[in-house]
Design a protein that fits this description.
Layout: H1 2-7, H2 10-16, H3 28-31, H4 37-46, E1 66-70, H5 74-83, E2 89-94, H6 102-105, H7 114-125, E3 130-133, H8 140-144, E4 150-153, E5 159-160, E6 175-177, H9 178-186, E7 196-200, H10 204-215, E8 220-224, H11 236-244, E9 249-250, E10 253-261, E11 264-277, E12 283-287, E13 293-296, E14 299-302, E15 306-307, E16 341-343, H12 346-349, H13 354-372, E17 385-390, E18 392-394, E19 397-398, H14 417-420, H15 434-441, E20 449-453, H16 463-467, E21 473-476, H17 481-487, E22 499-501, E23 511-515, H18 524-528, E24 534-542, E25 549-551, E26 557-559, E27 562-563, E28 566-567
Parallel strand pairs: 1-2, 1-4, 2-3, 4-16, 6-14, 7-8, 7-14, 8-9
Antiparallel strand pairs: 5-15, 10-11, 11-12, 11-13, 17-24, 18-19, 20-24, 21-23, 22-23, 25-26, 27-28
Helix pairs in contact: 2-4, 4-15, 5-13, 9-10, 10-11
Length: 568
């Protein structure tokens, strides 16, 4: 339920998230590999008990307001989840036959089983959402005329980018736009592909295309990308999974033409390039001068990017668009130039990922609720709820596991290729079992447990300095940050990580400076301190929801206490 509160889709994200949190994980500074945060969310989701009765129970007391959601992807579903319990009448429109948006049509079933998707989508639809599936909205003006109090647009980035090189039109029968092809596979309109397949592109969609092609009859499947391997946009684990399935990735090749013989596609010609970087790390792809290279292909999948498309939004309806034909959207409120129209997910600022769409949905729901209650969308917006609670239970007892475990990140087990490559719906990753999940969680360095220093209690005995296993604590004269970083016990060279600097201590007026970059949050400083000048306090953060609500662990809605513009 804690996952469901903020992430909304713990089982989906536990399988498919782009993991923007993991690069920030401090375990990666110790072991090179962060804690498997994403896969641990799946452990929690897969091993939950029955939770439906813990969620808000429809029907809810109506508040007289109606909201239209265009598109049934993660952003719109998040808005629906946040607003429905407040009494809003929610109408959800999508041209597909059920909810999920691109999670349904573009994420292959071997990564996200449909049963998992349906379960988590239905948790939201069961909140009393009025669904209008198989309904393509062809006019925003028409929607606004139906007197909705607000309209949220979460239609994603539905158009795959074209590759206009010689031979494209002549070979059209065997040259497919990647996201369209994945959509066709998902809805079972396409069930086979040629034996020799080239996938053009270096993002996650390209990885999904090549792996799907292997399951539909592709025996010789290659990914060919114009950039260097290290610069590919695909997540490292997505590239590894493709290569594990015997799919080579050929980098530094720019497609120049499709080769057509007797009216049929025969392959693609490529120009070899190399990456050259200037002093600002801006990349240029420079031809090597080698002869063009031919790769044969029965089919080519073009996955070189996605674009937004809003042909159904009239340009005189009050929604402004920029020079790239993207809606002008406020990055805090997600409100467009039309006061009743909001955007989120890929539709707002271009292609991102599921968790970003969820974040957009939360904030858009806050804005819609403020709008419908006649409040200012910026000045009356509540900050996230934060709290600090001491974890001290006794002299040497803490309410968290502070021991540092010394082992590397666990590998998620996978089903054998003999099963996965012959069945596109066979899930590849099997997930951690509860014991493995617990063991992986033990790698956490407890970033949520903060070291808190009370300068007036310090007697400068240096016990904390002596016991610190990473020498991150220093008592020294105060000075400007660049000099202070050089005078810590071990120079604090990571400028992206702030120093923790205290008020002057009573005896000498020195300050305590702690390098958060290497602190393990082990609590030894607090254990050793004879005056309790150090404490370990658990930090709690909760994303602001519409109506100033948060969901407790038992599913109940809790009103957040307002303290000025902050939450308690």
């Amino acid at each position: 339920m804690i996952n469901w509160d903020s992430n909304v889709f713990p089982g989906i994200l536990g399988r498919t998230c782009d993991r923007p949190c993991e690069p920030a994980c401090r375990r990666g500074r110790v072991d090179q590999e962060p804690v498997a945060i994403c896969r641990l969310k799946r452990v929690a989701a897969d091993n939950k008990d029955e939770v439906k009765h813990l969620m808000p129970q429809a029907p809810f007391k109506p508040n007289g307001k109606k909201v239209a959601l265009i598109g049934a992807g993660p952003a719109s579903l998040t808005v629906a989840r946040d607003l429905a319990p407040l009494g809003y009448e929610i109408h959800l429109f999508d041209e597909q036959y059920k909810g999920g948006g691109f999670m349904l049509s573009q994420i292959p079933a071997f990564r996200l089983p449909e049963t998992v998707l349906d379960e988590e989508v239905n948790y939201i639809l069961d909140l009393g959402i009025h669904t209008h599936f198989k309904h393509y909205v062809d006019s925003l003006k028409g929607v606004l005329e139906k007197e909705y109090d607000a309209v949220f647009v979460g239609t994603g980035a539905p158009r795959g980018r074209e590759l206009k090189i010689p031979g494209r039109e002549e070979g059209a029968a065997n040259i497919h736009i990647g996201i369209n092809w994945l959509n066709s596979v998902a809805f079972e309109h396409t069930s086979k592909i040629g034996k020799t397949v080239i996938v053009l592109g270096g993002g996650n969609t390209a990885m999904d295309c090549c792996r799907t092609a292997r399951r539909l009859g592709g025996e010789d499947v290659k990914v060919i990308v114009r950039s260097p391997y290290a610069d590919m946009k695909a997540s490292p684990w997505e590239k590894e999974d493709a290569q594990h399935e015997d799919i080579p990735i050929i980098d530094n090749h720019v497609p120049k033409s499709f080769v057509i013989e007797d009216g049929r596609l025969k392959g693609v010609m490529f120009e070899k390039v190399e990456a050259v970087y200037d002093e600002n790390r801006k990349r240029s792809l420079v031809p090597t001068g080698h002869p063009e290279v031919f790769y044969p292909a029965d089919d080519v999948l073009v996955a070189i990017g996605q674009e937004n498309a809003f042909p159904w939004i009239e340009r005189d309806v009050g929604v402004d668009f920029d020079k790239w034909e993207m809606p002008v959207v406020d990055k805090t409120t997600f409100q467009s130039s039309h006061p009743k129209v909001f955007f989120g997910g890929d539709a707002a600022f271009g292609p991102e990922n599921v968790i970003t769409a969820v974040a957009h949905g939360h904030q858009a729901a806050v804005s819609i609720d403020l709008l419908c209650n006649g409040k200012n969308l910026l000045t009356e917006r509540l900050d996230p709820m934060v709290n600090l609670v001491s974890q001290k239970m006794g002299i040497h007892e803490w309410a968290y596991d502070s021991e540092i475990d010394e082992y590397e990140r666990l590998i998620v087990p996978q089903a054998p290729k003999t099963k996965t490559l012959v069945n596109r719906k066979q899930e590849v990753e099997m997930g951690f079992d509860p014991l493995a999940g617990y063991k992986e969680a033990q790698r956490c360095l407890n970033c949520d447990v903060e070291t808190v220093f009370f300068a007036p209690k310090c007697i400068e005995c240096d016990a904390c300095v002596d016991i610190c296993p990473t020498s991150c604590i220093t008592f020294t004269a105060n000075e400007e940050e660049p000099e202070l970083r050089q005078h810590t016990k071990v120079p604090a060279l990571n400028l992206t990580q702030d120093l923790y600097v205290s008020d002057p201590v009573p005896q000498t007026a020195r300050i305590m400076a702690k390098d958060e970059d290497v602190c393990l949050h082990c609590g030894l400083c607090a254990e050793r301190c004879p005056t309790a000048a150090w404490d370990m306090q658990k930090f709690w953060y909760n994303v602001t929801k519409a109506g100033e609500l948060k969901y407790g662990p038992n599913g109940n809605m809790v009103q957040i206490t307002r303290n000025g513009d902050h939450a308690l």
